[in-house]
Amino acid sequence: MNTLDLWLAPWRHYPEGYLLTGLILGLLIGSFLNVVIYRIPKMLEQEFRTECCDLLTIKNDKATTPLSLSTPRSSCPHCNHAIKPWENIPLLSYILLKGRCSQCNASISARYPLVELATGLLSVLILITLGLTSEGVIGLLLLWCLIALTMIDIDTQLLPDNITLPLLWLGLLVNLFGVYSDIHSALWGAIIGYLSLWSVYWLFKLVTGKEGMGYGDFKLLAALGAWMGWQLLPCIILLSSIVGATIGIAGIIILGRDKNIPIPFGPYLAIAGLIAFLWGEQITQAYLQFLG
Predict the structure, then answer these.
(1) CB-side exposure of 221: number of CA atoms within 13 Å?
(2) Which of 72, 136, 156, 183 is the most exposed place for a label (fewest CB within 10 A)?
(3) Percent of the chain at pLDDT above 90?
């Protein structure tokens, strides 16, 4: 038993307490993830524009105050009203404000409280499934990164390196202590995860002349392999295909989505990765038993 498990052991006798703590923490992290989801693409765009202007030695006509996750303060996009602390309480503020800005009465997107709620509930699911253990607590970090990557990819079709690469290294670091897999399986998981989608990408491009996915997808699968080991990569890839087909067909039939519009693959990988993280071994065993 490692040091973290020893520290957590006394609290396992109070499941209601640590699950409620997990829910509240998840809601708070969900509020922060809304900032991450909104700002990181804009930070990358700002950085890219500045670098291009410096390279071409031209003036940056759209130069603005440098953006970070902490500055400037969050504000209403309609009237620039600085959001007060009491207006930023996860879920509760949205309900009390009736989904509108307190200053200009403009509508606030329901996505913000939904991200908070999803983060809170999924955090509880992690703790219920893995328990108050080192696996459960560290697994929350994986969950929160996957939520951020999913939403960013939906918005921009980007999987930022400043999330995927630290996630990959964190997976290797965690498994250096054998939390989810041994370090050799984790290392090969990262290598095989990257090269498998890289190979598919180039094969598809050679055959069709088109790009079927982005490099961020390679890095995300490499990160998932680093967290769970190469043994669960087939499960993740199969699940991502099933999730993608299900959501894609549902979008075409129910929402009337144009089938020619590109669909980001990152969210499917993230959903499949979370399923495999929680129940991958059981799914693999059930599949092998089915095959006899």
Answers:
(1) 30
(2) 72
(3) 63
d(CA 190, CA 172): 8
Tokens 């504000």 correspond to: 75
User: Can you tell me the distance from the alpha carbon of 104 to that of 75, in angstroms, rounded to the nearest whole number?
Assistant: 12
Name residues whose C-beta falls within 8 Å of residue 220's C-beta, 6 or more positions apart in sequence.
Answer: 149, 159, 164, 167, 266, 269, 270, 273
What does the pLDDT read at residue 188?
98
What is the CA angle 200-165-238, rounded to 5? 40
**Tokens 């693959």 — which residue?**
265
Structure tokens at 122: 């999924």
pTM assigned to the model: 0.93
Residue 233, token pair as written in the block: 């990569």
Residue 74 and residue 91: Cα distance in Å, rounded?
A: 16
Q: How far is 40 from 148, CA to CA, in rounded Å?
A: 10
Q: What's the DSSP call for residue 91?
A: T
Cβ–Cβ < 8 Å for 186, 71 = no
What are the φ/ψ torsions at residue 75 (nearest 5 degrees)?
-145, 165
The Cα 267–Cα 270 span in angstroms is 5
The model's pLDDT over 77-133, given as tens digits with 9 standing for 90+, comes to 888 888 888 888 999 999 999 999 888 988 999 999 999 999 999 999 999 999 999
φ, ψ of residue 125 to 5 degrees: the values are: -60, -40
**CA distances, 166 to each of 145, 161, 163, 224, 282 (Å):** 10, 8, 6, 12, 28
Cα separation, 212 vs 169, in Å, equals 26
For residue 287, pLDDT beyond 90: no
